[in-house]
Amino acid sequence: MDFKFGEKEGKLRKEIREFAKKELPPNWLSVMFEEEHRDEDWEFAMSISKKLSEKGWLTMSWPEEYGGKGASLWEQLAYSEEASYWGIPGTTMGVGGVDWVGPSLMMFGTDELKKKHLPLIASGDADGVWCTGYSEPNAGSDFASIRTRAVRDGDEYVINGQKIWTSAAHRSRWCWLAVKTDIDAPKKHKGISVFAVDMKTEGITVRPLLNYVGYHIFNEVFFDDVRVPATNLVGEENRGWYQLMHSLGYERGSVAGRGYGYNKRILDELIMYCRENHLFDEPAIRNGLADLSIEIETQKMLAYETIYKMSKGGVPIYEPSRDKVFNDHILEHMAFIGTGILGGYAQIDPMNRKSRWSKLKGCIENLYWLFPGISLAAGTDEVELNIIGQYGLNLPKSY
Ligand SMILES: Cc1cc2nc3c(=O)[nH]c(=O)nc-3n(C[C@H](O)[C@H](O)[C@H](O)COP(=O)(O)OP(=O)(O)OC[C@H]3O[C@@H](n4cnc5c(N)ncnc54)[C@H](O)[C@@H]3O)c2cc1C
């Protein structure tokens, strides 16, 4: 691997730091999932998202014709690292529009879909916010077992079924929806298709699903005779499985790419907290922080390797799964070390983190509660490890 950040990336990092300083409240620290949960945080994130778009940063590596700047993947990476480090909200608005719906549309969408949706996503506007409809009550890891059906009726498809755990469905204008279009296909993954569905269409009901902390992040989404124009089919009918494997790769890759900036910031905050409170005499704390720093630097190198492969025209197959599993591992480790450092202060209810006793804006207790969920989203760690075994190590397929 050969990589080098040049003057361009250095200038960009500086501009992003200045942007963060100007646009964010003093001592800002991002707290996971706050944007989805609370209206005021969502609105703030949307306003920042618009500014990021005006700067041309939101989708900087996209081609100019679709609202991007044609920037290199290395510039995009520098942006992601820096923006995540400073906790700039709104960088991933729409839980997927920027990171996986846009890139997937570029690969598989018709010209009509590309022309309509890509500039909307790039604009940072509310109409460019997407949720992702994959999981169902009886189909999570076993994704190919989805039962939500789309049946062709003239120029439309009629959709019936239910999705679950749909993050930000209550905030989204569009849904990136996986459905069954052929229930008699000889293999179940062969009868799947993908649709762009307007969440304002009649027949769609979004019901909140609070997580165990009480956050409203995800939802149940019901489809009752929802009529979608046939032109909203993405790619070929019944070939959705292959497209979705690409979309999931983009999704997993994005989690890992942003992970380094976020994790490094939390580590730096913990070090500062220990310094201010003279906590370094405790070997468990010193060792824990040193361990974390090794993991976070390793994470950076793994993410760079993935980007390097892409910059040479390669398609990462197992690498996004590897990067995501490693990020999950770091989050867990950081949650344990962080709660150990904060002691009793880490026991504050994450919903009450604006308490005057809460340290580091409550991000450690928040992380402690939420890391298990993060290790499930976009494919559980076990599923990711199976992918690494099969595609990275050439082991036989696991069932
Ligand atoms: C925070 C969060 C956000 C989410 N957002 C979305 C979203 O926006 N859209 C969406 O569609 N879904 C979303 N999900 C759902 C997520 O994709 C599923 O929870 C995940 O795919 C697991 O499916 P499941 O919950 O049905 O668990 P199951 O698939 O029932 O798995 C249960 C357990 O069995 C293990 N397991 C299952 N199969 C295997 C196997 N073959 N080998 C080894 N172990 C196995 C799993 O690892 C897990 O530990 C979200 C979940 C969370 C927690």
Description:
The longest helix is centred in the middle third of the chain and has 37 residues, at 240-276. This protein has 11 helices and 8 strands. The protein has helices spanning 7-23, 34-37, 39-55, 73-85, 97-108, 111-122, 240-276, 283-311, 319-342, 363-374, 381-392, and strands at 130-133, 149-153, 156-163, 174-180, 192-198, 204-210, 216-229, 233-234. The protein is α+β, with helices and mostly antiparallel strands and 399 residues long. The protein folds into 3 domains: 7-128, Butyryl-Coa Dehydrogenase, subunit A, domain 1, CATH 1.10.540; 130-238, Butyryl-CoA Dehydrogenase, subunit A, domain 2, CATH 2.40.110.10; 242-392, Butyryl-CoA Dehydrogenase, subunit A, domain 3, CATH 1.20.140. The strands form 2 sheets. It has a 4-stranded mixed sheet, covered by helices on one side. The model has no long low-confidence stretch (mean pLDDT 93). Helices cover 47% and strands 14% of the residues. Helix 1 packs parallel to helix 4 (73-85). It is globular and about 70 Å long.
Distance between the termini: 34 Å
**Heteromolecules bound:** flavin-adenine dinucleotide
Strand proportion: 5-15%
**Major beta sheet, strand line-up:** 1-4-5-8
Shape: globular
CATH superfamily annotation of the largest domain: Butyryl-CoA Dehydrogenase, subunit A, domain 3
Mean pLDDT: 93
Could you please say which CATH topology of the largest domain applies here?
Answer: Butyryl-CoA Dehydrogenase, subunit A, domain 3
- Provide the domain count: 3
Count the strands?
A: 8
User: What is the radius of gyration?
Assistant: 21 Å
H/E element order = HHHHHHEEEEEEEEHHHHH
- Please identify the structural class as seen in this structure: alpha+beta
Which CATH top level class of the largest domain fits? Mainly Alpha
- Are there runs of 5+ residues with pLDDT below 50, and where? none
CATH architecture of the largest domain: Up-down Bundle
SS element count, helices? 11
Largest sheet geometry: 4 strands, mixed
